[in-house]
Design a protein that fits this description.
This protein has about 290 residues and is α/β, with parallel strands linked by helices. Helices cover about 50% and strands about 10% of the residues. Helix 3 runs parallel beside helix 7 and helix 8 runs parallel beside helix 10. The radius of gyration is 22 Å and the shape is globular.
Length: about 290
């Protein structure tokens, strides 16, 4: 339940936290924590739609397209972070953000065109209000091309929601403190994007069992992580994992398959290629 200050969603008052400023610090944090726990429940009804987003994105990537995440302001920061965390190195998951042009519909179109967005790509927009002109412009351009468009938003009646074939809009209720920031929206959108990126990594062969196996040896830290992943996936010693990685030019998935099957580097790499990079499928085809 909430009490309206104005017509703005972000300024609704939470009826259960009217006296939060009078509570002890621990009681105050308990109230916040209990309210945050409801966010996951609000997302539950949209799991089917989120699954559609993941499957659509996986299909897009399998046909050579990209998943393009767009957002403005805090949502822009969020999509940039998710795109960077998706996988090290160059990937088909990218973020395009508004910068200082959030009020420009035309700039949203221009920025999308600058990244050569086509109907072969898929867009996932993140917008709390669903009314940011830049985001709307980017979405409308993608929609006009016939590309698949999905949106994470708080307003199912917004302009952005009308342009998407998949709408994820959990009913979050009022923030504990009104007029500050869209705390619940930020948490919910981060959770949803995490599900999308993790699910997409699994569906595109970047995961074997529950291990990320697409790591690149771009630094000493990542080289050590590769060794740890090969050891865990293959149940082998550090020496065996390191030797396998060195023999396949530190291609993590190839090294894992080598350890699991005893194949030479070139054989394991060829088998992976034949099976679209999926280790589990390649194992079924291994001699």
């Amino acid at each position: 339940m909430s009490i309206m200050l104005t017509g703005s969603v972000k300024e609704r008052r939470h009826a259960s936290t009217m006296n939060i400023d009078r509570l002890s610090t621990l009681d105050m944090l308990n109230v916040i924590h209990q309210d945050d726990a409801l966010i996951s429940e609000a997302i539950t009804p949209f799991l089917t739609t989120i699954a559609r987003v993941v499957d659509s994105a996986a299909a897009t990537l399998s046909h050579g397209g990209r998943l393009v995440l767009v957002g403005a302001g805090p949502s822009g920061c969020l999509v940039s972070q998710v795109a960077q965390e998706y996988a090290p190195g160059k990937t088909p998951v990218i973020a395009i953000t508004a910068g200082d042009d959030t009020a420009s519909y035309e700039r949203g179109v221009i920025d999308l065109q600058a990244h050569k967005f086509t109907e072969q790509d898929m867009m996932l927009a993140v917008t709390v209000s669903g009314k940011t002109p830049w985001v709307w412009g980017a979405m409308r351009h993608a929609w006009s091309l016939g590309a698949t468009v999905a949106v994470i938003t708080d307003d199912t009646q917004s302009e952005a929601a009308q342009l998407a074939s998949m709408v994820i809009a959990p009913e979050l209720g009022a923030d504990v403190v009104a007029g500050h920031i869209n705390t619940k929206a930020g948490i919910a959108h981060k959770m949803i994007l995490s599900m999308v990126s993790t699910g997409l990594a699994i569906r595109t062969g970047r995961v074997y069992s529950n291990l990320r196996v697409d790591l690149q040896a771009s630094s000493i830290k990542w080289t050590e992580r590769q060794i740890a992943i090969v050891m865990e996936a293959g149940g082998c010693t550090r020496a065996v994992a390191k030797c396998a990685l060195e023999s396949c030019n530190h291609h993590c998935k190839t090294a894992v398959l080598m350890v699991l099957t005893g194949l030479e580097a070139w054989q394991a790499h060829e088998l992976l290629t034949q099976n679209n990079g999926f280790i589990r499928v390649a194992l079924q085809e291994a001699p």
